[in-house]
Please model this.
Amino acid sequence: MLAPDRAYPGRPRELDGAGLIRLTDSLLRGWSAPVRALVRAADPATAAFFGFHAADPGA
Model:
């Protein structure tokens, strides 16, 4: 999931994979059931939180 830092409650950088999956599932409340099921089925060993920075190459 890619979202601005302010979209994440608490301290997501401190969560383990299972915690990140639960957080992502809660942030996707209201999304379609198949999407949420896909998130819940993720392997916690593959879930990680990291910063992503982008810049406008034309700026």
User: Anything to note?
Assistant: The chain has a mean pLDDT of 91. The radius of gyration is 13 Å.
